Amino acid sequence: MLPTLALFSVLTALIASVSAVPCVQFDSSWNLYAFGGSEDVKLGANTTWSSPSTSTLSSSGRPPWTGTNSQCILSQTNNALYVVGSDSSDLSKIYVYNFASDSWSTQTTSGAPSDLGNSRSASVLDHDTNVIYTLTTSSGLYQLDMSSVTNSASSSALAWEAVENSSFSVDGYTVTATQAANHIFYFGVPNTAAGSANVFVVHYAYFQPDAQAFNGTAFPDTAGQAISIPTESDSVPYSMVFVPNDFSNTYIATHWTDLGDYTVTSDAPFATDLINSTQTIPAPTSQDKTASYAASPYDLVQVDSSGDIYYYATPVNADYTVSSSGSWQKLSYSVSGGSTSSTNSTSSASSSASASASGSQASGSATASKTASGSSSASASGSAASSSSSSSSSSGAGKNVVARGDLLGLAVGVVALGVSMLI
User: Disordered: where is this region (predicted)?
Assistant: First the structure.
């Protein structure tokens, strides 16, 4: 019996490894990082992505990366990463990564709802207050105040607090949330009109009774993944990325509100016809429903459950219109240890497909690239990172590409062997 138990212990570890999902995120200087593989790595500024040279991050105190709905959230003001749902044995733990010091710490919490971590877009960090908001499907909206944490965990536990129940039904809802202008938007709520999203107003702590309609190309009423696009100035974000599970497009939704008077639009940082508007760029090449996304002011990045990384350069211009041309490019680096499951994927789109913009057309050039030192350069044709990825991996990347099929095969072999021993 002992060998059998040992065998199934190995199997449990392998299953956790196979089912874990990676994530990507930027630091506040817009260097890209990849997390959740056999090692966490820094991939650097977008000017290097055509042939990335990786540097390995500290492994001391890193998350176990066993969660299936882990989220990697940037606290831009604090230059810190908050990892939610990465420990399947205790989803209430928040792992904090300090980009500046390359160090991990673990924030314990209390009073977490039992159904924490509904999806990879369930939690949103409010930019101004550094409070995490998580919508659950059985106990309403919860908040966790991280203002005392900044870039290192507190020695005492932080308490999750119930806020209120949503104004809409969450039955069967896979939470798909992100923030713009101090409002949290919930995409794909069942029985919501296409092109509309439900809203929680952070500064007044209430759910709007009616969904907010967006003009332009209507996004579908389906769940998916959603993130905000941060600003260079570290203000609240105004652009949101929504990738629905039908992969009809990648939708860029723009929102702005005058907090003092909702009827005032003269102070908007972009043309008023872009307020509550939707524009589109192509759906990601890898159409994986469990993929993770991250954005800088210059790039949109996806890592799928197999560990492959794709990026779209300059999805949004400086005037908040979308780029009129562009395509998803693949990095010559893959995260080791990604999931082998393909049940959450649909057919892939061509990686060389040109971007088609709907709504307002791009009318201005954006700041295209940013180096790790903080200097910026402008380009009329988009980011310096828009060149195609090298067909061969860099020396640093090549050694980190995992043989995920071998891992799955080993797991299956262990199952077969365990069954034969029991028989």
Answer: 340-397
Yes or no: say if 73 and 82 are a contact pair by the CB < 8 Å rule: yes
Cα separation of 379 and 360, whole Å?
20
pLDDT digits (tens, 9 = 90+) for 190-222: 999 999 999 999 999 999 999 999 999 999 999
Q: Which amino acid is at 174?
A: T
Residue 261: other Cβ atoms inside 10 A: 9
Task: Give Dmax over CA atoms of the chain in angstroms.
Answer: 75
Quote the CA–CA distance of 36 and 294 in Å, as a whole number: 14
CA-based torsion, 14, 16, 19, 20: positive or negative: negative
Of 140, 147, 73, whose CA–CA distance to 113 is shortest? 140
Q: Which domains, ranges and CATH numbers included, belong to the chain? A: 2-422 (2.120.10.30)
C-alpha triplet 99, 13, 411: angle, nearest 5°:
120
Q: Is 394 helix (H, G, I), strand (E, B) or coil?
A: coil
Pull the structure tokens for residue 220: 């579908």
